[in-house]
């Protein structure tokens, strides 16, 4: 298989590991929040009133109503005011987030479109479906991003659970319900690798931010790191490994320096993995036992990517917990009235902002430094199933079970 599009010069020696090798595993129990730094405010969040349908206030700037049924995924273009969405109507759409205009209807799936994403340079877009198809379109011309053409259909998966583009190259990664992970080169559509090592649905996966490795995790409780140039695992952690019995892994994030992964389990547990050594080095216990951890994001509170960092985890218990990985302590708890389904972190210079989406039909913007609620975004009449940041973090676009995509500004409301 051809792999020469992956720049081997990017593969450098492993970086410093921030959690010491001899560190004793530390379990932080539920509710054990710790004080923040000096001037940080208390992390207690007042309960907000519940939303009955008749009482929903629409705070969105724009609607997209093209889908006939639930919208499972939405992803914004890296530079242009465009979003791609996919839903249970077996369709995807590229649409303008400023006016809701349909740019192109993405057809060809015979079952729900469960994943969609633009490539890092924004020149291509891929949709993945429960029918096992991955379909790719590309931009036509050089003057604008209003014209797209179908490029290719990628074969292999049984049912596509997620898609990820390489952070710099035209390489597409997909996790499948049949325990396999697929890697393709675009625009040729050639299969680069098929990673086999899981035994159940591959629930989540990521390229490391440096682009050198792939990390995948499975409903069987295993986590595997791969070299994109080889079908052989770099390392594998299984449920039988000490302190890794999560009851199935449901979410995953890798820190900006590509040295640590944080994974969440179906049973509410959270584990920290040293990717350089392939070892579990920590456990976090802030979520209710038996409530799945659905989303994880690293938060850049310091304005740089050094150190182990801060991570936020969101679960079906309605909580998003902010953790300082240098101290293994919980900084704050962000509260929704129903399951937290998605988390986003805004890029610099507003990298302290966290956006959470929930089955309680709202999204909320928080100050990650203090745990303070800054703004509630409402308008959905059903659970928020996904969200994406657009225009370099100036807007957030949501996907709802009510068939709507809504566009909100992320700015803090005037006090």
Automatic annotation (TrEMBL):
Mind telling me which InterPro entries this protein's record contains?
Answer: Quinoprotein_ADH-like_sf (IPR011047), WD40/YVTN_repeat-like_dom_sf (IPR015943), WD40_PAC1 (IPR020472), WD40_rpt (IPR001680), WD_repeat_multifunction (IPR051179)
Tell me which UniProt keywords the record has, alphabetically. Answer: Repeat, WD repeat
Q: PROSITE patterns annotated for this entry?
A: WD_REPEATS_2, WD_REPEATS_REGION
Q: Which SMART domains match?
A: WD40
**Keyword Hydrolase in record:** no
Record's keyword annotation contains Repeat: yes
**Which protein, by its recorded name, is this?**
Ribosome biogenesis protein Sqt1
UniProt WD repeat ranges: 64-105, 106-137, 163-194, 195-236, 333-376
What residue spans carry the region label Disordered?
22-43
CDD domains attached to this UniProt entry: WD40
